[in-house]
Design goal:
Hypothetical Protein Tm1070, Chain: A, four-stranded antiparallel beta sheet, about 110 residues, mainly beta, 8 strands
Length: about 110
Amino acid sequence: MTKYIPDCYWPEVDHGSYVSHEAVCVLNTNTASATLHLTLFFEDRPKIEGFSVVVPGERTMHIRMDKLKGDDGTVVPRGVPYALMIESDQEVTLQYTRVDTTQPELAITTTIV
């Protein structure tokens, strides 16, 4: 199974103690674990591969993109628009959420993929 989230962005600015971040929430209703591979695509630079996550069977996991590290220690760049491809060996449900704290009013966007 392959899913795409074309509008990802981790804002560079935080307001106060609130941290701007993104999360990919995964629901795995299968009895078997799901192994996910994430690839980031950019407008002006090569893609970044090497992010892997295992979601146990019949569980949910919230993957905070600001805390995600690749196999080689690579992190998601801040302040750079990107698209996300998520490949899974099991059928899973995904929800993408962005919390933008660049202004005092805050903003949240979310979508199910």
